Hints:
Blueprint: E1 4-9, E2 15-20, H1 23-30, E3 44-46, H2 48-60, H3 75-83, H4 87-92, H5 95-113, E4 116-121
Antiparallel strand pairs: 1-2, 1-4, 3-4
Helix pairs in contact: 1-5, 2-5
Amino acid sequence: MGLDVDFLDGESREEILYLRKPEVFFIALGTKQGEIVEEPYSDFWVYEEDLAETASELAGRGAKYQKASSELPSLREIETALNDLSPSEADARSELDDALLIALVLQAYVEKNGKIICAWSA
């Protein structure tokens, strides 16, 4: 068991990204938690500025993304790359760098499509 996070399109409510155990990213984003989508649930709205602040905070903590923003992977590439890691692969990756990559990819999505919903369970 662990933290599972779904990101949904704000209009269609369709899933755009599902992540297992993105603790570093979720904690950074959670400090900017937006308004609750619908009571009594804990799902919350995420806006472009939330993701920009999250990316800035993570970069300030030493996270790096070495490529140009035009070379960001797709949401599905992120989902596959981060959810299907073996324990040794996970140990070799930087959770801080992965968290920054998640923030940048979601920010690019929100810039084009508008706000998203963060739905989570632990």
